[in-house]
From TrEMBL:
InterPro entries: DUF3298, PdaC, PdaC/RsiV-like_sf. Residues 65-170 form the Deacetylase PdaC domain. Residues 1-23 form the signal peptide. This is DUF3298 domain-containing protein. The lineage of its organism: Bacteria, Pseudomonadati, Chlorobiota, Chlorobiia, Chlorobiales. It comes from Chlorobium limicola (strain DSM 245 / NBRC 103803 / 6330).
Length: 281
């Protein structure tokens, strides 16, 4: 074999090796992701962007303490397939049904967040025509993604609103999803069978620790501040990198003046009752 042929043969051999290596790497990447290329979603996470919608009345109501009239909504919108569509549907249905921009029973229009934000301002105009100079209506929605890995997604939707009265209202709602299916997970989906008593004791102990209460102090006393002499888990639960959090909104377990309560249990705290697939998120 002359030198020219030898160089050509070596170059061809190296090109074949590079093609095989590249093909193997590409195959492995698809297998690890578990999803079609370019889908925007991995096996463990959902892609998302924060959507912002703002509607504002340019005219201030100077006869009513110069209050602004606005509706501002920021919330995550997920992409990447059927599971993302189910998550979006759950979040946007809650916004449309369970917040201050939820329309009345007579409303038959579009229930998208943008349309409901516009309707919120229109409701203020109708109220102003009926009752005269009234304080401006205001609504803020702030959504955030608290956890998005290992097939588990946690979203927080926090609202603040004022539509008249002595004070405004505010609250936070958590949503935990199976990112692969888009199904919302309830408390019973996160914990092992028979978890209830153990979880209630952990929450009671953590609340007492937060308030500086002994095991015999009453929870409905001056320091405990609760309506009842007990505290139990509710359905407003989040899985976060820090652990399992339960959020109690105003009026739920205590008077408005005491505000909401947020109780977080570490993963080590709930290791004996949390299902193994949710440990170490």
């Amino acid at each position: 074999m002359n030198n020219h042929n030898r160089v050509w043969f070596i170059s061809l051999f190296l090109a074949c090796i590079m093609f095989i290596v590249t093909a193997c790497d590409s195959s492995n990447a698809k297998r690890l992701s578990g999803v079609p290329s370019g889908s925007g979603i991995s096996a463990d996470t959902l892609s998302f962007e924060l959507q912002r919608i703002e509607k504002q009345d340019g005219k201030r109501n100077t006869a009513a303490n110069d209050n602004e009239v606005y509706c501002r909504c920021t919330y995550p919108v997920f992409s990447g397939g059927k599971s993302a569509a189910l998550v979006n549907g759950t979040l946007q249905t809650w916004i449309a049904d369970s917040t201050e921009i939820a329309p009345g029973d007579v409303y038959t229009g579009d229930r998208s967040v943008g349309k409901l934000a516009a309707n919120f301002l229109e409701e203020y105009e109708r109220a102003k025509k009926e009752f005269g100079n009234i304080p401006g209506y205001q609504f803020d929605l702030n959504g955030s993604v608290l956890l998005n890995r290992k097939g588990v997604l946690t979203v927080s939707l926090a609202t603040e609103s004022y539509t008249g009265g002595a004070h405004g209202n505010y609250g936070t709602r958590f949503f935990v999803f199976d990112a692969r299916s888009g199904k919302r997970l309830a408390v019973r989906n996160l914990f092992k069978a028979g978890f209830e008593d153990r979880l209630n004791r952990l929450i009671d102990s953590r609340y007492r620790q937060m308030k500086g209460l002994s095991q015999t102090d009453r929870l409905d006393g001056e320091k405990g501040q609760l309506f009842e002499n007990f505290i139990r888990f509710n359905d407003n639960v989040a899985l976060t990198p820090e652990g399992v959090t339960f959020f109690y909104n105003i009026y739920e377990i205590a008077a408005y003046v005491f505000g909401p309560a947020e109780i977080t249990l570490s993963y080590s705290d709930v290791a004996d009752i949390l299902k193994p697939e949710f440990m170490g998120l």
